[in-house]
Amino acid sequence: MNLLGLPQEVLVHILLQLDTPSLLVCGQVNVFAPYLLPSEPLLNEHQVCHYCKTLLELSALQYKYALARSGKVDGPATGVPVKDRLAALERYEEAWHAATQIQDPQLPATRPQSYRCLPFSGSAIPFISGRELKLYLPASPTRRIRSKVWSFDLEGIQIDAAYCTTDLSQNLLVLCGQKAAPTNVYECHILSLSDAVIVPEGAAAIPILTVAASTPSVSQDNENLKVVVCGDLLAWTWVDDLTHLRVFNWKSGQVVWSNSHDYLIYFAFLGQRCLAVAHHCAEYLRVYTIDPDTPAQMPLPAQSELPDVPDMRIFLLPPTEDAYDCYACIQGIASSKPSGRSDQRTLFVPDPASTVLAIVLQTASHLPYSNIVWRPGSQDYIVVIPTRTLLAHTEPATASKSYPPISSDHPSPHGPIPWQSWGESCSRLLPITPRLRWISSGLHVVGSKCLIVSGRPHSEAVLDIFVCDFHPFAEDNRTEGEDQDRATAHLYMDTSNVLTGVETLKGPIRNRLPFRVVHKVVKYDPAITYQWGNLSTALLEDGVVCMVRRRHRSSF
User: Fold this and answer.
1) How much of the chain, in percent, has pLDDT values that exceed 70?
2) At what angle do helices 82-98 and 59-70 cross, to 10 degrees?
3) I want to staple 471 with a disulfide (CB 3.0 to 4.6 A). Which of 9, 354, 370, 392 is the partner?
4) Beta strands of 250-340 (E only): which ranges?
5) Full-model pTM
6) Boundaries of each F-box domain copy (predicted)?
């Protein structure tokens, strides 16, 4: 059989240019029949389909299928045959299905016995012993990522380290903390990860960023001090009498965006120029486009509302039933793009187009004088949204053709965009079972993966950990074990594709974002009392979970 007289390798190259849905169509119907050469004998549809399927069974095309099903794209590693890449990806997926350790999450055997792990974001785990900081990158053998350890002497910086973040694609570490004196001063140290040590970052015009709180901090809770890096932008939040969110261009040291609010402010970068912001008692999400080269107006007055500016879009969240006088109270917002180390050329990486944003909503009865009373029947919800959907509405001129179409239902380019116009067709809403001991700090997102942590009723020693993976082909290769995990997850959250009878939300609600889930139970010594409200969690790229409470850490 001959299609257009082309050799097989040319046909394979053409097929590799197709997206995955088009490849699936090629394997299911007789789409090539019109392109057979006249000299070809008359073939029936079954024979042509068989030939197409034979082409699609070649390693190069099977690898493309496997990448799509796992939410990955090909990595920068060179000199590795496609067959070996495919085998490595299959082993990686087997580990995911079995909830086994894809990475080696154990800290080095040479670590000191007495240490504390800092709350963090990024790919590397920080722990402190005495006045030394160790930063540990776990190995991922299947992806050919080697483990790495960096050391840093804290004697030279006079802060009580409280939070750190890494961007390994830029070999960047940002370490934040409170100065010993005066106690109302916070510092962010911008550092570079060299071969084995940590040194000041030479590209930073101001290697130490400083802010002064109006009152000394009364807590080292990680929710009160957090920093996230995305490209040239660094977002930093801290709490005194108000919650402050300030965005710096860390290379120039300039403040390029800032806001203060009575309520806690939650934020996530959607891209190197887009920041999603929300706060308590709001039914909407705001996305700001930030120019990293334009300084913010200083001084910055405290504001009771997030600023309305031209470079901003308002996205309404799932509507609540007016009859119950409910408000959506945002408890968390998380999004982090994986950042591979620049000197480690991995076989495959998470697909950046599948990155999601996760928001926790709570419904509450709103009474006069801004008092909020939680009703016994109130529920929490986790809303998972592809970030590309928000970007498509925020930056229509640069939106990819693969983005969902932008609706014109909202009245003006800067007016609120209804949930039905932007989120309903591509998101997933997960109502949390009311009996669940939901841990609000147990929500974390990296790429397309979302961590959900819950405690069991009447048990302080058992945690249920769910890692969900959201992308268009997530349900295409679910195993029996994953189906069991999904059934377990359904006991804690409603995973139905159509939600009906949800008391506090207008319905029905159709969930159109596919996902898969793995579940693991973590048990602790029941003699130890854990205050899970103080739990800090982190999710690494391969689904490894780190949970930090004082000197305790668990991962899988």
Assistant:
1) 67
2) 30
3) 354
4) 254-261, 265-269, 274-279, 284-289, 312-316, 326-334
5) 0.82
6) 1-30
- Domain 116-555 CATH assignment equals 3.40.190: no
The residue assigned the tokens 């992806």 is: 143
Sign, Cα dihedral of 62, 65, 71, 75: positive
| Cα dihedral 260/265/270/274 (nearest 10) | -20
Concatenate the DSSP letters of all residues of 461-493 into one string.
Answer: SEEEEEEEEESTTTTTT--HHHHHHHHHHHHHB
Could you tell me the residue ranges of all domains in the chain? Answer: 8-98, 116-555
Q: How many CB atoms lie within 10 A of CB 309?
A: 11
CA distances from 96 to 45, 89, 494 (A): 38, 10, 22
Q: pLDDT by residue (tens digit) across 177-197?
A: 888 777 788 899 999 998 778
Return the structure tokens found at 94: 């087997």
3-state SS assignment for residue 110: coil
What would the pLDDT profile of 385-414 be if each residue is shown by its tens digit?
999 999 988 865 343 333 333 333 433 455
The pLDDT value recorded for residue 115 is 72
Render pLDDT for 357-366 as a digit per residue (tens, 0 to 9): 998 877 654 4
